[in-house]
Amino acid sequence: ARRLVVLVSGTGSNLAALLAAHEDPAYGARVVGVVSDRAGVAALDRARAAGVPTAVVALADFPDRAAWDRALAEAVGVFSPDLVVMAGFMKLVGEAFLARFGGRAVNTHPALLPAFPGAHGVRDALAYGVKVTGCSVIVVDGGVDSGPIVAQTPVVVEPDDDEDSLHERIKAVERTLLVETVGAVARGGLRVDGRHVRVGGG
Ligand code: GAR
Fold this sequence. Notes:
By secondary structure, the protein is an alpha/beta fold. 35% of the residues lie in helices and 25% in strands. Strands 3-2-1-4-5-6-7 form a seven-stranded mixed sheet, with helices on both faces. Strands 8-9 form a two-stranded antiparallel sheet. Helix 2 (42-49) links the parallel strand 2 and strand 3 (54-56). Helix 1 (13-21) runs parallel beside helix 6. The mean pLDDT is 97. The chain binds glycinamide ribonucleotide.
């Protein structure tokens, strides 16, 4: 199985879905490490409960962002991943990280990119008044949710939605999309050609 390292910052519901999927050997990938930029988050408890080793690399513990980024790359590298999955990881990675894991790191985002990138994808979509939003799995690049798109699922906005209700409905399809996409990448590879991405199948 391909080795996955999952980067988290919070609740870890997407991580939980990956941890459930990897129980099946046919899935093709195993979560071998979880790295958080925040101590004490629920995602770390989920990893520990599943017997997966964890590490915390907090920005505040480093003199600057570049030093933090190097330490993050180092902490991820300890697990020798084939693929890095950002699942609710709320920090931008930098040059050191991308030099090592660029092209084999994906991120999940709760909006239909390129609309509503950033930390508040659900809130921003509601504020704009879109009738359809969704979730995206993208290849990580140096920008804010700007990398090539791997897969997306739409979600209809209901008239009474608030940020929580809409985010919950997005998360329900997001975990399925993330699990399916990561499995397909693990089994078939990821080819990135400019903005265009192909998963598996030659
Ligand atoms: C997910 O909806 C993810 O897409 C979002 O945070 C949530 C994390 O949930 N990430 C971003 O907004 C990144 N820009 P989780 O911790 O329960 O998996």
